[in-house]
Amino acid sequence: MIDFLAAHPLVTIMGVLALGALLGQIRFGPLRFGAAGALFVGLLVGMLDPRLGEGMTLVRQLGVVLFCYTVGLSAGSTLLSDLRRQWALMVASIGALVVMAATGLAAGRALGLTPAHVSGLFAGVLTSPAIDAAQQATGNSPDTLFAYAVSYPTGVVVAMVVVAVVATRRWPGRRDNVSMAEAGIKAVSTRVTRDARIEEIPGWPSRIRMSYLLRDGQMRVMSRTDELHAGDEVLVVGMPADVNAAVGFLGYRTRHVLTENRRDVDFRRFVVSNPRLAGRALGDLDVREQCDGIVTRVRRGDLEMLATDDLVLQPGDRVLAVVPRGRLGDAQDFFGDSEAGVSQVDALTLGMGIALGMLAGAVAVPLPGGLRFSLGAAAGPLVVGMVLGALHRTGPFRWDLPHATNRILRQLGLMIFLACVGLATGPAFSSKLLTWDCLRIVLVSAGSLALGGAGLLLAARRLGLSAQRATGGFAGFVGQPAVLGYANSLVNDERIDSAYGALFALGTVVKILLVQLIALA
Fold first, then answer.
1. Residue 249 reports pLDDT greater than 90
2. Helix or strand or coil: residue 65?
3. Which pLDDT score, from 0 to 100, does residue 154 have?
């Protein structure tokens, strides 16, 4: 059986994926490993025979590239808007990484570990692509790979325990934005008791939308040039707090539900499959001219968002458009509304984006002291993905992937990567599993991660950021894809991915430098 698996590596990988998925569904107290189950099954299978982990480099690289690039695209879409909130957290993460490196060196020396051990455990507990730089800096010392193999699963377990404790907590996030997934969007039929220009209404146009307008018994779609008069009825759409402020300014909530009258004005959700719309801001699309309507909401995956002018549409988004009943066909033609149209992956832009990421990761920059810096196969695609995700489109090239496609590629890449890592590190993990060296590495890696992670989370709370953004930042600080997947399984919050992308990219750069400095200590 072992000989067969060694001769058919794809069978081995798929078997590990299947068993890992099964293990990932089992609860261990508050923990459920999810995608990380592939890592632990891979470790167990890899311990059976070293041949089972051979020749996995290319497949492992494919997995990490798919994961990092798709995470970069997702995080890049909110990078610029969230940078103001996250720059202080990014600075705090650098300090926490330096503290971890210093703690690891000091504790390692006290327990008799070599700099090669500490360099490897630092890369392992933080799941960093810096392992390549660590091996080069230590002359491919076996101590480095052994410490990496032991500290890697240690970091996964410790990080998941931290996420399980923090992700669902609610502490004051006074300087953070409200999660759109948490707050939700509501629509309130409102009776107007005062004359008002539309620009006077609190929250217009960035935090509320108004669609239905009933005046003198006639229903129509409200436009940007309309003025409201006493006696009008209008539908106000937005987050609860913003809607309440607008309704309080205009008049009061009415029992008459405007959306029940669909004779003159109707609404429908349309799938954005028109390639000319993807990657463009709603404010740049003349929805009024094309179908005499207005878009009030956009649903992306499980996230319902207010259709603000600066919201950039992605293929596969579902827009809720309010239009005159006779223009529904025009709206369908305008948005595309084809599931088949968004189920096809744009292989051209996907391949170009990943290739650019790999090229960026391969660039090596010489540093003083004979050191060399490169982003590697993980951070290169992540950084390029974040840039392209922020651009959305460049001329005819549309970089965004449909939300469902992004999630599928991300999950597949993650599980392939973890399975290959487990298979490759299994032999080194088993060789000294029950030794004093193994225990020392576990203690140093777990202790340093707990100290650095606690410092980062404390800083996030002091900075007034939400527990959910702090969780995403911690997952990015650790750099463990499985931790991000676990956090997303606990909480549906877009702030997690945003913080993860920012701190993962920055942390990778810092880790690559630190492992080389540790090796020279």
1. yes
2. helix
3. 86
- Any bridge partners for residue 346, and if so which? none
pTM of the model: 0.73
Q: Would you state the pLDDT for residue 487?
A: 87
Q: Quick check: 471 and 167 in contact, CB under 8 A?
A: yes
At residue 502, what is the residue type?
A
Query: pLDDT tens-digit profile of 23-58?
Result: 888 877 666 777 778 878 888 888 888 888 888 888
Please name the residues in contact with 389: beta carbons below 8 A apart, sequence gap of 6 or more.
72, 73, 74, 75, 76, 77, 79, 399, 400
Neighbours of 338 (CB within 10 A): 14
Tell me the CA distances in angstroms from 29 to 6, 155, 388, 438, 483, one per residue in order: 35, 18, 40, 25, 17
**Amino acid in position 289:** E
Residues of the chain with pLDDT > 90, as a percent, come to 21
The residue with greater pLDDT, 433 or 202, is 202
Domains and their CATH numbers in the chain: 2-175+347-520 (1.20.1530), 180-342 (3.30.70.1450)
Is the pLDDT at 344 greater than 90? The verdict is no
Sort 228 into a burial class: Cβ within 10 Å, 0-12 / 13-18 / 19+: buried
| Percent of the chain that is helix, strand, coil (3-state, to 5) | 60, 15, 25
**What's phi and psi for 490, nearest 5 deg?**
-90, -35
Strand order in the sheet with 318-324: 265-271, 318-324, 294-300, 303-306
Residue 239 near residue 303 (C-beta atoms within 8 A):
no
Confidence of residue 183 (pLDDT cuts 50, 70, 90): low
Cβ 128 vs Cβ 512: under 8 Å: yes
Distance CA 507, CA 460 (A): 16
What does the pLDDT read at residue 78? 67
Alpha-carbon distance of 303 to 491, in angstroms, equals 12
Residue 214 has pLDDT above 80, yes or no: yes
Q: What is the DSSP track for 465-516?
A: --HHHHHHHHHHHHT-HHHHHHHHHH---HHHHHHHHHHHHHHHHHHHHHHH
Q: Got the DSSP string for 110-148? A: HTT--HHHHHHHHHHHTT-TTHHHHHHHTTS-HHHHHHH
Asked if residues 345 and 368 have their Cβ atoms less than 8 Å apart, the reply is no
Closest by CA position to 34, among listed 492, 521, 490, 517 = 490
**Residue 301 carries which side chain, given as an amino acid letter?**
G
In the chain, the N- to C-terminal Cα span, in Å, equals: 45
Q: How many helices (H) and strands (E) does the chain have?
A: 20, 17
Among candidate residues 296, 194, 293, 171, the one with its CA nearest the CA of residue 249: 194
